[in-house]
Amino acid sequence: MECLSIVQFLENKSILVAGATGFLAKVLIEKIMRVQPKVKKLYLLLRAEDSVSALHRFNTEVIGKDLFGVVKEKYGANLNSLILEKITVLNGDITRDDLGLQESILEELFQEVDIIVNSAATTDFDERYDVALGINTYGPANILNFSMKCRNLRLLLHVSTAYVCGEKEGLVLETPFNMGATLNGTRGLDIENEKKIVDELLKKLRAESAPEKYIASTMKELGIQRANKYGWPNTYAFTKAMGEMLLGHLREETPLVIIRPTIITSTFQEPFPGWLD
């Protein structure tokens, strides 16, 4: 079997990137544009109210960054035509079915997409539990469901975090999480039940006309409590771990890779040293 390099593998591939304004996604987009201009298409999914707002976010929060300086020098006056040919900006939301995309683009994506990279996440350690569950836990499941409709899918790459392993010392193996697994051995973790707890508490608070500030703080406290109960230090790590569980449980034959980056700092060498968003 021929062993292709990553650059070769990406040639003539259509790639959907979720969370396109995030740090890692920007670095990925920049490198693909710089080293593999023969990529067929980059579909970039951004949270925005409409396509105009999504394009504005792309221009200011992605291509407008200093990170793309080398790409701009390389292509010069041809950069705009390259972007028009290779990049399609989509306004969507991974917390919704079919990623909140308009029906007019769905059939094209189901036919064309070869690779999906999910780097969409909320990375606040003490995020509201309802928000973190929606993005970090159920978001990956929605991405997976979407990927199963892509007829030519070669790879679903999910960006998780090494923090899912909790606070440990020594060698930490990259062991996948089974559904309901916990870090401290406490039994009873049920993701659907976690969502039910959130929904019921939100319903109760809103029935009592609780102020939004109080609801937000209550949701933050709930996330920390639920994470600590099962051995995770914060809501971020807990909800990311549950996202991995859902992917592993639901994947069927989907070609899935989960990566767990550790602390992410600035660029080391490419496109230049020291860039940090």
UniProtKB/TrEMBL annotation:
<dbReference type="InterPro" id="IPR036291">
    <property type="entry name" value="NAD(P)-bd_dom_sf"/>
</dbReference>
<feature type="domain" description="Thioester reductase (TE)">
    <location>
        <begin position="17"/>
        <end position="277"/>
    </location>
</feature>
<dbReference type="InterPro" id="IPR013120">
    <property type="entry name" value="FAR_NAD-bd"/>
</dbReference>
<dbReference type="Pfam" id="PF07993">
    <property type="entry name" value="NAD_binding_4"/>
</dbReference>
<protein>
    <recommendedName>
        <fullName>Fatty acyl-CoA reductase</fullName>
        <ecNumber>1.2.1.84</ecNumber>
    </recommendedName>
</protein>
<dbReference type="InterPro" id="IPR026055">
    <property type="entry name" value="FAR"/>
</dbReference>
<dbReference type="GO" id="GO:0006629">
    <property type="term" value="P:lipid metabolic process"/>
</dbReference>
<keyword id="KW-0521">NADP</keyword>
<comment type="function">
    <text>Catalyzes the reduction of fatty acyl-CoA to fatty alcohols.</text>
</comment>
<dbReference type="GO" id="GO:0080019">
    <property type="term" value="F:alcohol-forming very long-chain fatty acyl-CoA reductase activity"/>
</dbReference>
<keyword id="KW-0443">Lipid metabolism</keyword>
<keyword id="KW-0444">Lipid biosynthesis</keyword>
<comment type="similarity">
    <text>Belongs to the fatty acyl-CoA reductase family.</text>
</comment>
<dbReference type="GO" id="GO:0102965">
    <property type="term" value="F:alcohol-forming long-chain fatty acyl-CoA reductase activity"/>
</dbReference>
<keyword id="KW-0560">Oxidoreductase</keyword>
